[in-house]
Amino acid sequence: MEKTSTFEKPAKANPVILQVLPSLVTGGVERGTVDLARAITESGGTALVASSGGVLASDLGRFGAKHITLPVHSKNPIEIHRNIYRLSEVIRDYKINLIHARSRAPAWSCYYAAQRMDIPFVTTFHGNYSDGNFLKHFYNSIMTRGDRVIAISEFIAEKVVQEYRVNPDKVITVPRGVDLDFFDPAAVSGERLRKLSNEWQIPECSRIILLPGRLTEWKGQRVLIEAIAKIRDKSGLCVILAGSAQGRDHYLRDLRLSIDRLGLSETIRLVGDCRDMAAAMLLADVVVSCSVEAEAFGRVIIEGQAMGRLVIGTDHGGAKETICEGETGWLVSPGNSGDLARCLEMVLSLGEQERIKIAHQAMKNVRKKYTRDQMCELTLAIYRDLVSEVSAEA
């Protein structure tokens, strides 16, 4: 890709940062993008986000960031190629200092646009991407071609270095962070709890188990259903599966059939998408993340810890970093419903003092390692270093 010679780079004092992702619908990557855009503007920079749009796009204007609508969600090779030139125009028109790609399809366009316009290119390796063949591995590899590669956990950092043979010096671990203003037990009103409890028709004096996450096989809803069937004392038990099927109607039907077949229709509720996850977690006694495939990070666990809930995760991937066994939560074997059932029985039988002790340790763990502010500051430091290097070379 030939470099353009008509682009005048701005001074580094107030850098202009462009983040690019497929869309701005709800999700961890999307929320993190908005959080970082806010941090950029608050630090004196200019924040732009390019995506195909979504419900979170309107949030950007509230703190001075700008959204640019581009078809960067497309995986069509022709569209990806066209996006190189569209992004090059954005870089030139807005005098972008650095471009940050957060997903694979747009990252291909960002990489060549950054080369063409001679600006730094940063990627965030968000997922535990499968790469069962050469073509898939090559497609994923774009996320390792940044001048800096941000890994959202040590698990992902190790994967990037070992499986993609990336120089460890350019891989930086920046764990995902919780918004402690939102995930704050003191900030959730009784009215919010009552509204959600009534909406989900939760009986009084229930022991509530919550599994938040979109309805897909690898998130492990089926494993939890089978585990609940194995729990001996189901009295007062109320299990909430909170998440959208996102078009996976066959999986939703299968879950309902499993619930009915096991005689759990009075115990387990499929409630769909939840717009108030902080209230949902505060309502719960136990928050479960039982993904059968390794999570790249696992935001549910740290959100549950921030709310002072008892958390159970699976013993692989990012969850192994966010849970200290028996101190801030528990880990169970992936896909093992018997192991999960035994752990749930043990956790539900804990006394009040033990529950308070573990909840306190979990909240302390989040505040020390996994806050939104820490995530943003570490990322801003990467931006500053790269922009400074380019300025020094100019």
From the alpha-carbon coordinates, what is the Rg to the nearest angstrom?
22 Å
Number of helices: 15
Averaging pLDDT over every residue, what do you get?
A: 93
Strand order of the largest sheet: 3-2-1-4-5-6-7
* Percentage of residues in helical conformation: 40-55%
Distance between the amino and carboxyl termini = 21 Å
Oligomeric state: single chain
Helix-strand layout with pairing:
Layout: E1 16-20, H1 28-42, E2 46-51, H2 57-60, E3 66-69, H3 77-94, E4 98-101, H4 104-117, E5 121-125, H5 134-140, E6 148-151, H6 154-164, E7 171-173, H7 190-200, E8 207-212, H8 221-230, E9 237-242, H9 249-261, E10 268-272, H10 277-283, E11 286-288, H11 299-306, E12 310-314, H12 319-322, E13 330-332, H13 337-348, H14 352-369, H15 372-393
Parallel strand pairs: 1-2, 1-4, 2-3, 4-5, 5-6, 6-7, 8-9, 8-11, 9-10, 11-12, 12-13
Helix pairs in contact: 1-15, 3-4, 7-10, 8-13, 11-14
At a glance:
With 394 residues, this protein is α/β, with parallel strands linked by helices.
Detailed description of the structure:
- The chain is of the alpha/beta class.
- It has helices spanning about 30-40, 55-60, 75-95, 105-115, 135-140, 155-165, 190-200, 220-230, 250-260, 275-285, 300-305, 320, 335-350, 350-370, 370-394, and strands spanning about 15-20, 45-50, 65-70, 100, 120-125, 150, 170-175, 205-210, 235-240, 270, 285-290, 310-315, 330.
- It is built from 15 helices and 13 strands.
- It has a 7-stranded parallel β-sheet, sandwiched between helices. A 6-stranded parallel β-sheet has the order 10-9-8-11-12-13, sandwiched between helices.
- Helix 1 (about 30-40) crosses helix 15 (about 370-394) and helix 11 (about 300-305) packs across helix 14 (about 350-370).
- The longest helix is centred in the last third of the chain and has 22 residues, at about 370-394.
- The radius of gyration is 22 Å and the shape is elongated.
- The two termini are about 20 Å apart.
